[in-house]
Amino acid sequence: MNNFTWIFLLALGASLILKLWLAQRQIRHVAENRGQVPDAFADKIQLDAHQKAADYTLTNTRQGRIELIYNSLLLVGWTLGGGLQWLDNSWQQLGWGSITTGVAMLISAFLIMAILELPFTIYHTFVIEERFGFNRTTPATFVGDLAKQALLMLIIGVPMAWAALWLMQESGGLWWLYLWLLWSGFSLLMLWAYPAVIAPLFNKFSPLEDDTLQKRIQSLLNRCGFKSQGIFVMDGSRRSGHGNAYFTGMGQNKRIVFFDTLLKTLEADEIEAVLAHELGHFKRKHVQKRIITMMLLSLAGLALLGWLIEQSWFYQGLGVQQASNHLALLLFLLVSPVFTVFLQPIMSWFSRKHEFEADDYAAAQSDAADLIRALVKMYRENASTLTPDPVYSAFYDSHPPAPVRVAHLSTRTAS
User: Fold this and answer.
1) Among 222, 228, 283, which residue's Cα sits nearest to residue 255?
2) Region at 249 (left for phi over 0; alpha for psi -120 to 50; beta for the rest)
3) Which of the following is catalytic: 235, 269, 278, 357?
4) 129, 272, 355, 359: which one is catalytic?
5) Against a cut of 0.85, is the pTM above it?
6) Is-contact 361 280, C-beta < 8 A?
7) How far apart are CA 346 and CA 369, in angstroms?
8) Is 359 a known active-site residue?
9) How many Å apart are CA 279 and CA 345, to the nearest integer?
10) Which of 134, 147, 286, 393 has a Cα at 20 to 30 A from 48?
């Protein structure tokens, strides 16, 4: 242990206390407002639906507190508890080369972490989601998804890990810059390829068959100057009762995707308004701004790692005795979230700002009243709380709280 050990423990403790305090605020605020539907929604959402949303939020938040503590203990176990050092020693005994050993270490560590988090995923899917009527996932589908995810980790993760470690070993002092270029290129490739290659492994995507709705959507796309490779319906109901819509892909490989559950819930004019909101993100270049932001953050992170990798106190302070490229990379990935927790509310603020901008665009291209009705239905069907704690919401939420968002849109209904 050294001074950095205490800095790490202090940061971890402060982060944990902050998040537990925020969770307690959320629990208290939602519970206090459970008994009455907010005035803005009194004629739109029944009390039983409001209480279901409150109970769903309370259950997930309480479960989240347990996960926070569990993950913090795991992090200490991996680092100061010697978990990473033990796993690395086990691979080193095989006598493989440094890059091969590093790849094996990285992949096995991430697989073990996924296994250790699996009980919470199972509980959330088959207990919490089942209790509130959202789960559609069968055990066979769940196991199949896990197998596909593990296979993808091997197919994609092994070459990427090998390339990263090779650059770290062979490309000199600017390895972090070359690695950033590799990671940026890979991320853009995945954004382009995901709709056609990855997503169909888990869900079925069918062309929208409602000709009237398709013509209406195409008219909106033409007005907005948006070209896509098609309008698709995803079989989201195979796994969950939640509904959503999104854009995926980039360049000439963009797709519009509606959950089948959403299409069953909304009317045609409401679907058009939801799509207009999503188009607002495209027209306001939110996706590009987020990509650039994440690239700049990753560049800063890798530059920092380029310095930390030469510091013996970095390894020793986190329970690792023998420095190596793969352990430096793994330690950085595990520990950096502890020190960057302050970025969460900043990123959330920008995301909410983008949501307001997209809502304004939707109000201009369709009808704000239609979007309000669609949002209310989505809040109800997804059991989204109408009364989040303001501080909790400001820290975490990527979307404005329901009352704030509806109030904002209401000012656009007359325009």
Assistant:
1) 228
2) left
3) 278
4) 359
5) yes
6) yes
7) 30
8) yes
9) 25
10) 393
